[in-house]
Each structure stands twice: as C-alpha cells, then as structure tokens.
Amino acid sequence: MRDAVNSDLQQRPMFVFEMANNHMGRLEHGLRIVAALREVARDFPFQFAVKLQYRDIDSFIHPAYRNRYDVKFVKRFAETRLAWEQYRAIKEAIAEAGFVSICTPSDEVSVDRIEEHGYDIVKVSSCCVADWPLLERIVRTNKPVIASVAGAGLQDIDRVVSFFRHRKVRFALMHCVGEYPTCDENLQLGQIGLLRERYGDVEVGYSTHERPDNYDAVKIAIGMGARLFEKHAGVETETIRLNAYSANPGQVRRWLEAAAAALEACGVAGARYPFTAEEVATLKDLQRGVFARQDLPAGARLTSENTFLAIPGAPDQLRANDLSKYVDFILTEPLPAQAAATAANTRSSDRRQHIFEIVAAVKHLLKQAKVAVPGEIEMEISHHYGIEKFRQFGTTMLTVVNREYCKKIIVLLPGQIHPEQYHELKDETYHVLYGELELVLDGAPRRAKVNDVVVIPRGVRHGFSSAKGVVIEEVSSRHTLGDSHYTDPAIDANPNRKTFVTYWMDWALGRAEGC
After folding, report:
1. In the CATH scheme, what is the code of domain 352-506?
2. Disulfide: which of 150, 318, 328, 372 matches 349 by Cβ 3.0-4.6 Å?
3. Strand order across the beta sheet in which 417-422 lies
4. DSSP for residue 276
5. Which of 3.20.20.140, 3.40.920.10, 1.10.10.10, 3.20.20.70 would CATH assign to domain 12-266?
6. Alpha carbon separation from 444 to 9, 130, 440 (Å, rounded)
7. pLDDT tens, 443-470?
8. pLDDT tens figures, 290-308
9. CA 169 vs CA 52, 153, 447, 491, 501: distances in Å
10. Any idea what the Cα angle at residue 460 is, between residues 458 and 464, rounded to 5°?
11. By percentage, how much of the chain surpasses pLDDT 90?
C-alpha cells in the first residue's frame, strides 16, 4: 500500500476525502468540492486523496426498481447520477489539484471505467468486502486496494486478507462502522488495534462516519496507530445541504488540525524519541550519585560496602544508574570519605558483552550435546585470570541441586582449561555426557570420553581441559562455599573471578532479559 503513493504512511499519513454523492449529480459542484478541498489541504504536510464512487446504474439497480424512488438508495443514486465523461472530468480535476485519486466501484462495469479513467487506488466498500466476483475483477486491475471492513466478521476479514496476499496485491484495511452518522459510543476505535495485531504488516486505517464536528475520534485513531484516514466531505450552497456525517471545508480543516496535533503528541514511532536537554538534566538531578563511605586508596574497586548513594550529585559523577554487576569501577587516585566518584577519578571495565557471548556459546554447546537443563538454574561463570582470558582459562557450572548431595552440569568450551584445584570436604564423580575430557589427577594425566565415569576423592588435586568442548555431569557430596582450593595462589587472591547469571536461558546474544 505504501508503494502506491511512494511514501511511508508513518512519515506522511494519508487523508482521503470521500465525495460519495455530495457532487449531487452536478459536474460543476463536484469541481467546486475538489477546489475547496485543495485550499484546505495546501496548509498541511500530509498526503491527500479524493475519492469518488462509481455505479453503473443501469445494471446495478434491478429493472423493476429503477423508478421506485420510495426505496432510499434507489432514489439517492438515481438523483445524483453523473455521465461517465462527467466522472472522468472530476477525476482529472482531482489529479490536477495534486490529490491521489481513489474510486469505489459497486459493480464490474465500474471497475472497467476505473481502469479507463486511470485512478491510482481502488477502494472496496464495507458492503462489498466479501463480494468475491467484484474482488476478482478488482485484483485484475493490478492497482493498490483499500478495503473497509464494517460489519465483517474476523473469518471474512481473514479470507479477504488471504485473498489479497495470495494474489500479491498491495492493500490496506480500514476500520469502519456502517452507521451514518456513528454515535460516539459506537465508534469501536479499539478495533484498529485488533486489526493491526491480527494482520501484522497490513496497514490499518480509519474510515470515519462520526459527526463532522467530532475532532476527538481522529486523535484516538492516531493513538491506536492508524495513519490512513477517510472522511466524507462536501460543500454547502444555498440549495445544497450536507448530510449528518459529511464535513464542510471548515470542519475538514479543524479535523486536520486535530490530527496534526495528535501526530505531534504521539511523536516518534518505531524507535526511542530524541530526549530534550531539559529532560536529561532533570532526570540526572534525581539520580543518586556514588560517594566514598571511607577513605579509599587508588586501585580500590568500588563496591556497595565501600560506597554509598545519595543526592545531589556532581555533573560528571558516577550515578547509581551506572552501576551493574557486570561493570567494575577502579579508582585511579585516592578518594576521601564522602567524596564523589567521577569519570575523572575512576576507570571502568564492562564484562556485559563477554557474558552475553559466553551464555550464547554455552547454550549452543548444550544444544549440540542434546543435554536438557532445568529452567532458572543459576549459571556460575568462573574466569580465573580475568574474563578477557575466559576462553583460555575458565569453566561454566550449572548447579541443579545442592543438598546433602550435589549435582552440577560442567561445560568447557573448546580449548578451555580449568586450573588445578582440590576440595577438603567434597567428594566428586564426573560422568562425561558429551565430548572428551583431559584430566590431570595428582599429576597423572587421564583421558575420559562419552559415558566414562571418573571418581575424584576429596584432597585429590585435579585440573582438566577439552580441545573440542565437553559437557560433564558432576555428582558429589554437598558443595560448601570456600572449599575450592587452587594450587595457583593468584586465583584465590582474585575476589572477582566469578559471575553468576540466573535467567540466562531467556537471553539472546547482545540482549539481556530479566538479568
């Protein structure tokens, strides 16, 4: 549908003026309406269209009823009838005024005339939205289509959407209520949201039949995401009066002004809006700053134990919003008690992207190994010599249960080494579920493959590695914090060698959900 007007409706909404029978069967009055609408439209930065309705009266009305003016629609259509050349003249005026031209056919002959007259878009009225013979003829025009769906059930709309999609027709849907005029309590503007959610990539607009002095409905429709609108419009004279749902040029102008105000209030869609300097400054003033709890030496890592949070903060001060379990702030100079930690007196190290990549790699290996893992169990990432060296030295553990007995899943990525350690309390057994494991037990090398079981009694020094990656099931006695003793004292001296992640199963690379 957007290709039809060579523009994105989200950037330049389209407003369609429905002339219907408001030309009153008079060519000169139809031209007067086009001219009046052009004067209104020129003051707004939108796309505009004028729409006519075509009917081949001789075939559309049953022969026995052509003179039955006691029948409402027979009378209206017969009295406002124009010759095809007169319709063509109005269509040419629409194009000359710079409007997109749209026409609603009620029968197959009218579609022929639409093609002859060169309209840009074909409109399907609500009463014809499931008129399959007419739809079959319309799609053969290869023109974009706008279809109103008043009174149509979801099953019918589903079929129409499928019909257009299968024929690769560019189309949009219009929420509409077939009540003329539509009272406010029957506008059902929430249907715009239903149609947008149900049909995804289909543009959904709003065809209005409310009172012409109702300027709120269009605002709500814009808030619901509509960017395509249709309104009946006409011009009154001494002898011509508009119906209860058609707007005069002044009412059209106020309608467009209301829409412009609503679009401005809605602002940016599909991306975050540009923050104003005033907004950023106000919010920053309310963010707690980071202060030293006591005198801190250069090289100290800022923690919740040695800092406190309070307002007001200095302009370049670290804020509570900057703190994360994935980011370390290290002082580059001494910081007195109650002084502010700032960008100037700290350096930072952000582990977040490393963690994302580790989680993705572990999930990939578990999937490759076809190892099922319970949801919401904690992931323990050990980066013994710093996270930058994790792919060389490190391991990932998933604790399934830790009672008097303990079960863990241990994952080594390809090329990883777990440094040598021993336990004074825990007695372990490894069951290799996937890959191959190279172990060194009290200095003696050993290789274990899938389904091998390795017993590691308490006190036995053990280090292990895997060239291509391995998944191990560890069954042991209870794991006690502080019972992992590394033979390299540099590891035990590193208090930040572990990162714990709980909701890692819902993570995607580069994005944390619920971390």
Report:
1. 2.60.120.10
2. 328
3. 444-448, 437-441, 462-465, 417-422, 485-486
4. P
5. 3.20.20.70
6. 71, 80, 5
7. 999 999 999 999 999 999 999 999 999 9
8. 999 999 999 999 999 999 9
9. 21, 21, 63, 65, 48
10. 115
11. 81
